[in-house]
Design brief:
The protein is mainly alpha-helical. Helices cover 43% and strands 9% of the residues. It is built from 5 helices and 3 strands; from the N terminus they run H-E-H-E-H-H-E-H. It has a 3-stranded parallel sheet. Strand 1, helix 2 and strand 2 (52-55) form a beta-alpha-beta unit. Helix 1 packs parallel to helix 2.
Length: 117
């Protein structure tokens, strides 16, 4: 998949020559994205070794505004991060992210999920 989270992690792993971004001797890598990752990207992040996640939000706004299908996410996803030692920073530039979603929706750009063709 070419979702930003997966591509970013792949680039970091390729550049550093390791699949474990949290390995001994590695700096504490942080994933910064505009919203809670979709189910696929969430799984990839858990296994990547990333030590922190910074997001603008996690509510229904993304799907409601854009029509993206983020898939089924674990209802206790925040706890899953904590169990794995991944620090969550949430609410950073929330309103700005929502405005970007509105701009995307108004642009008429294609929505990438199969549910909408």
């Amino acid at each position: 998949s070419a979702h930003a989270e997966v591509v970013g992690q792949w680039l970091a792993q390729s550049t550093l020559g390791t699949f474990d971004l949290g390995a001994e001797g590695q700096p504490r890598h942080q994933l910064v994205v505009n919203w809670r990752p979709c189910c696929m990207c969430f799984g990839a992040m858990l296994w990547s070794g990333v030590r922190s996640l910074l997001i603008a939000g996690a509510g229904p706004e993304l799907e409601e505004i854009t029509g993206f299908d983020e898939g089924p996410i674990h209802p206790r996803w925040r706890e899953e991060l904590e169990k794995r030692g991944i620090v969550l920073s949430e609410g950073v530039e929330h309103d700005a992210a929502v405005e970007v979603f509105k701009e995307f929706a108004a642009s008429g750009s294609a929505v990438y999920n199969g549910r909408q063709g």
